[in-house]
Amino acid sequence: MYFCTLNLSDMKKHIHLLSMAALLLVMAATLAGCQNKDYHILVSTQDIRFGLRPDTQTLIIRADCKWSIQKNDNEDWYTISPLSGTANDSIVTVTVKDYSEGDYRGTTFVVNSPGGHVHRTIFMSQNKIDFDGMINKVFGAASIEHWNTDYFNQIIEDSYRHWEYDPYDTTDGQLMYFLEDGKGIQRNRVLYDYPIYFPFEYEYDRVNNILHLEFELEDGEHEVYDWEVLCASDSLYRVYHEYKSHWFERADMRKIGVINPSEKARLMYKATKRKKGEPVFIME
Fold first, then answer.
1. Coil, strand, or helix at residue 46?
2. What is the pTM (predicted TM-score) of this model?
C-alpha cells in the first residue's frame, strides 16, 4: 500500500493553491450574477400618438439600471432626447414635425437595459382623425395585432402577434360597410359559397375618439365594443381596444371602395328583408 507524504512547505503551497482556486470560483459566480442581473424598466406609455401638426410629448422611464434607446429607422420626422440614461426616473422628450402628406405614419423604438436582456417597445404615430370621411365607404382588413400586458400594464414582448391581410380580398377577407345614420354591415364569413353579412350599429364620440359598435351575430346575439379611434379618413381606419382584461387588439383597415346610392339601397333592402337573427346574403 502506498501513502503520499507532504512536508510543511508542500502543504503551504497546496493550501495557497486551494485558496486561489476558491477565490476564482467566488469571483466567477459574482460576475455571472452581475451579467444575469434581473434589471427592471418601466415606461409611462408604450403608445405615443400625435396629430398632424408639430408637437412634443414626454416619456417617463423608471429603471434600476443604465438604459439606451434604439431607433428602428433613420427617419427624420421625429426626434428623441436623450437617447440614454442611468438608473433613476428619467424624462425623454419626443418631438414630431408637421405632416401634411398623408393620413398616418408610424414607427417604433426600443428602450434597452445593458445587454438588451430587458427592453420595452414604444409605438409612435401621427394620425389624421376625420370620421366623416369614412361614411359611405367600404373598408377591408389589412392587419391585426394582438398583445398582453402584465401587472404594471407593460407589454409582454413574447405575447405580441401580427397578421397581414389583403384588404381587397372579397372572398375570405373581413369587410365593413359604413353607411349613414349609424348603420353598417360587416362581412362575417362564407357559407355555401355565399358571403354572409350581419348588420351593426355605430356611434362615434368625437370628444374622446371612441367608436361604439354593436354587432348582430347568428341567433340574434350581439357583441358590443368600444374602440378607440387612432386614425380615421376616407382611406384608412385604425382602431385599438382592450377586448378582455390585459388583452389588446389593434386593427388596420383600408378603403377598398365607395358605396354609391344604388348599392346602399341594395344593402339596406337586403338587411331589412331578412328575419331577425338571420344573416344578410349578398351575391358578389
1. coil
2. 0.75
